[in-house]
Amino acid sequence: MSSSTLRVLVVDDSAFNRRTITRIIEEIPGVRVADYATDGEEALRKVFDLKPDLITLDLEMPRMDGFTFLRIVMQNRPTPVIVVSARSEDENVFKALEFGAIDFVAKPAGRISPELSNIRDDLVRKVESIAGADLSKVVQRKSAATTTPDASLQESLADGDKPLHEGPKMVVIGASTGGPPALQEVLSSIDSRVPAAFAVAQHMPPGFTKAFAERLNRYCTLEIVEAQTGDLVQPGRVLIAPGGRNLTLRWHGNQVVAHVIEPEPGQRYIPSVDVLFLSACKVYGGDVLGVVMTGMGNDGARGASAISQAGGEIIAESQDTSVVFGMPKEAINAVPKAAVYPLNDIGDQISQRYK
Predict the structure, then answer these.
(1) Which residues contact 338 (CB under 8 A, 6 or more apart)?
(2) What three-state secondary structure class fits 116?
């Protein structure tokens, strides 16, 4: 075995699913399945015995559920985990990400389904991205995670008689691997009185973004919704691009509204950060703040460049906190004057533009 081989433990109580996932993974060069487990207790033993480089995890298992398994693994032997989840478990997916899972792929809702092979491209891409993931960042985020607006925001809200100043009218944010918990941290630290509208493109499959938006909305003072065509773009509101589709902004009379469109054939990253950034730039010109956060690939670099050239500002998450530094690195390469901050400073830096 090559020292660079990525060794994977497949955890799923369905024999059909285990075989399908194993077949997909073993088609990836430099990756092999070290073993499989049929429940959480067996998986836990094999994590400590085999010390895999990556785990694929079904959340619903007998004897020990996926959340208990995740908590024990992250406390005792932190290992990258990709959740393989049915859409009916969408709320559980985001809970698993808070427990330390790096990413997830969507499988058909049936326990045994030939459609499972349809996740091939998404699973392959995310397994490959794990090679560039820094799990220490996931552990740091997990230990620092908050479920309510932070103290500085509470203090700011209490001091509500101080008016906020004008800043960029539109804030657009892009993220991929490691993005959901990071977005929760950023958005929960932003004062809802900030006189700007927000839009987010987080790479995510269809069926999950509504639950994601609802979860964020519970933890933030901003209003957060999954975008639909015709939604008004207005201060204090965050529009989340629907999974598997692209979010654009356009004028409708004298108002800016959301317009949800289908991706172009062959488009790799969906919802597209570039598509969102470029449309925001077209509507607002230089009156845009673009934020590029953790994620694989180069999505967002082209849009960041366009925003900067129009006179807008770019913030990129630093390598110190990015689970995968691909997207921020490409944005910094495209916009050398981009402001670079660690995750825990990004929300405050956005708010500072209006003080």
Answers:
(1) 292, 304, 308, 314, 315, 316, 331, 332
(2) helix
pTM of the predicted model over 0.90: no
What interhelical angle do 343-352 and 179-187 show, nearest 10?
A: 40
pLDDT digits 0-9 by tens, 260-293: 999 999 898 999 999 999 999 999 999 999 999 9
Domains 6-131 and 151-352 belong to one CATH topology: yes
Q: How far apart are the first and last CA of the chain?
A: 57
| 151-352 has CATH 3.30.230.10 classification | no
Residue numbers annotated as active site: 176, 203, 299
In angstroms, how far apart are the furthest CA atoms of the chain? 65
Measure Cα distances from 143 to 19, 74, 93, 126 in Å: 35, 10, 18, 24
* Torsion angle of the four alpha carbons 125, 319, 102, 4, in this order, in degrees rounded to the nearest 10: 60
Please state whether the peptide bond connecting residue 242 to the residue before it is cis, i.e. omega within 30 degrees of 0: no
CA–CA gap between residue 36 and residue 260 (Å, rounded): 40
**Dihedral sign computed on CA atoms, order 72, 125, 7, 63:** positive
Residue, of 203 and 191, whose pLDDT is higher = 203
